[in-house]
Amino acid sequence: MVVKVYGPLYASPKRVLVCLVEKEVDFETVPIDLLKGEHKHPDFLKLQPFGSVPLIQDGDYTLYESRAIIRYCAEKYKSQGTNLLGNTIEERGLVEQWLEVEAQNFHPPINNLVLHILFASVLGFPSDPMIIQESQEKLGKVLDIYEERLSKSKYLAGDFFSLADLSHLPFTHYLVANMGKEYMIRDRKHVSAWWDDISNRPSWKRVLQFGAPF
Amino acid sequence: MVVKVYGPLYASPKRVLVCLVEKEVDFETVPIDLLKGEHKHPDFLKLQPFGSVPLIQDGDYTLYESRAIIRYCAEKYKSQGTNLLGNTIEERGLVEQWLEVEAQNFHPPINNLVLHILFASVLGFPSDPMIIQESQEKLGKVLDIYEERLSKSKYLAGDFFSLADLSHLPFTHYLVANMGKEYMIRDRKHVSAWWDDISNRPSWKRVLQFGAPF
User: Fold this and answer.
1) Which residue windows are coiled coil (chains A, B) (predicted)?
2) What is the DSSP string of B98-152?
3) Is pLDDT larger for residue B213 or for residue A43?
4) Total beta-carbon pairs less than 8 A apart between chain A and chain B
């Protein structure tokens, strides 16, 4: 079965793509142009009522929300590719903890930076310097906690690469490659080593070849 | 083994408490007074570097982030109490999808309403009418999508109660019981029936007995 992934150009769908590559699952991509509003088209809203990407179709099964999809893929294809969930219930618990930290603590400020630095002019709203400053301060504090954590274990959930690390790839890539803020990673020794490790995985290099919206 | 749950008065820890009751797991609670800043005390920050509740200790094992903890408990105590994860990988996928919808779409606006309507004066910041209005509009749109979903299945992930429903209990309780906004639930027939169903579970009634911070 080939998994269909909608919206491959964008950051959240790339969480799904890199997970599928790690799990050695065949997939095809379905372009969705957010700048043309294709995610608000009635046919798409029937599949994803909130009008956002990614969305996958795995045969008759439809699923949305990137972090739900990567959990599903890691579980369904448990016996192949990289184990992304840890080996025990306790390790899985820590994977879940750091996935939640990514979603609740890391993502909101980095998403604000991406929106206000990279997308404001394309999407036609004014970039807000106050939001940029506050978000950068918040993200810095989160990265300080990551630095402490990564001084004790190679990856976030322990000494194994997992969904928790993988989930950071797309937005951190924007920070490093497109936003002139690589120093936020490089100023923190253990975060920097972690980033080199995870961003040099062949899976991520393959996903970058799918391109970006700008 | 008795699980220790830190911060039982507050909404996010109540996700954990109701999960433990559903799973028939013995627990004890450890009070943390956020209004006195106990979550920023160095001893607490050693356990939870972001300074938030809940946190659990299950023997030597420490875990934080409420939605990570409920996944861990539902998995570890799979063979007892209510099954909260569905019966198949596909059902679990939908549980994850709606847990993510709760975290990403439902929680941000309802959390803003709780902060600006219930906690602003206690926490000493000005309540912002614009944030209240925008958040209420956003929450209304999310609840419209829930209404459509719940017209087709009894619970969010399907015809079975799961972590996805459970995760909505604490903040929706604030909306209905403390904020004078019960009409947002009652104006939507299927959401209203769903709320009656989940909020009348004996587990939730027991958790309400732990009290609230005001």
Assistant:
1) none
2) HHHHIIIIIHHHHHHHIIIIIIHHHHT----HHHHHHHHHHHHHHHHHHHHHHTT
3) A43
4) 85
Fold of A3-81: Glutaredoxin (3.40.30)
A105 to chain B, any CB pair closer than 8 A? The answer is yes
Contact B100 A67 (CB under 8 A): yes
Distance CA A107, CA A19 (A): 18
Entry field: residues in chain B: 214
- CA-nearest of A77, A78, A80, A45 to A64 is A45
Separation in Å, CA A108 to CA A101, A192, B158? 10, 21, 29
**pLDDT for residue B213:** 83
- The domain locations on chain A are 3-81, 89-204
| φ and ψ of B27, to 5 deg | -150, 160
Q: Does domain B89-204 have CATH number 1.20.1050.10?
A: yes
Of B68, B75, B97, the CB nearest to A68: B97
What confidence tens digit (pLDDT) does each residue in A137-187 have?
999 999 999 999 999 999 999 999 999 999 999 999 999 999 999 999 999
Kindly calculate the radius of gyration of chain A based on its CA atoms and give it in whole angstroms.
Answer: 17
Write the DSSP symbol of residue A82. -
Please, what is the average pLDDT of chain A? 96
Per-residue pLDDT of B50-61, as tens digits, reads: 999 999 999 999
Token pair belonging to B22: 């559903």
The pLDDT of A88-106, averaged and rounded, is 98
Average pLDDT of chain B is 97
Structure tokens given for B137: 């509009």
Question: Which residues in chain A are contacts of B67 at CB distance < 8 A?
Answer: 96, 100
Q: Are strands A55-58 and A61-64 parallel, antiparallel or unpaired?
A: antiparallel
Taking CB atoms and an 8 Å cutoff, what residues of chain A touch B93?
61, 63, 68-69, 71-72, 75-76
pLDDT at res. A122:
86
Let me know if the fold of A3-81 is the same as that of A89-204.
Answer: no
B149 touches chain A (CB under 8 A): yes
